[in-house]
Amino acid sequence: MKKLKEFLDNIDTELMDDNKILQFEKYYEMLIEKNKVMNLTAITDRDEVILKHFIDSVALLQYCKLSDEKIIDIGTGAGFPGIPLKIICPDIKVTLFDSLNKRILFLQEVINELGLKDIEAVHGRAEEGGRDNNMREAYDIVVSRAVANMAVLSEYCLPFVRKGGYFIPYKSYEIEEELNEGKKAVSILGGKVEKVEKLDIDGNGRSFVFIKKEKNTPKIYPRKAGTAKKQPLC
User: Fold this and answer.
1) Looking at residue 201, what is its pLDDT?
2) Which pLDDT band, with edges at 50, 70 and 90, does 22 fall under?
3) Is pLDDT at 31 greater than 90 in this prediction?
């Protein structure tokens, strides 16, 4: 975990300690072991997991300081970026949201084994969660590394963001064309692109798109399951 510690030390020397290193070690072990029986990640080499999953997940902290925010990670998969962010910023409140129940059960095992508090793993589709009164416009920050274009991902995620909060998708380094095509959807759903931060770590490029929720999402969104992908708002 040396590379992870060095990266975080460059942001803030107080972010990483021995206990957090042990939590990341255990997380890696559980990820690799569970990956033998279910598809969690195509990346299994230790150095690659540290770089492309752990460092990539916490790289957001270079541009966004987190303290006690309420955060939801949509399409969290194996727990990225939600669990690494929770390990480094233990005071944030995190919901890990995914449509595959087997992944949710694995994430609950990780939460228990690492002794994490104020974090839950929830099974469901984004189109349903975004209409749930307990989840709709209930979060300060929504993050997602899910693979979907900006228009589709915005319809999945912006309904969860409270007015004044942020949707911050983790996107590829070259984002301009996709961002331009997704601006209409972002606007319709109540958001506005505030800034884009770009980062390159050992040849791995990443863009963080900061979308501020300026007005409430119209009640008709998100549309029923599958519609956003078939008929994107662009």
Assistant:
1) 87
2) very high
3) yes
- Residue 60 Cα distances to 54, 56, 71, 165, 199, angstroms: 11, 8, 13, 16, 9
- Rounded to whole angstroms, the Cα distance separating 114 from 78 reads 15
Backbone angles phi, psi at 204, to 5 degrees: -100, 105
Contact 188, 159 (CB under 8 A): no
Nearest to 86 by CA among 150, 152, 129, 24: 24
**Are the C-beta atoms of residues 162 and 142 closer than 8 Å to each other?**
no
- pLDDT digit string, tens, across residues 142-188: 999 988 899 999 999 999 999 999 999 999 988 999 999 999 999 99
pTM: 0.95
Peptide bond into 90 cis (omega under 30): no
Residue with tokens 């991902």: 153
Query: Distance of CA 74 to CAs 31, 81, 188, 196, Å?
Result: 19, 10, 20, 20
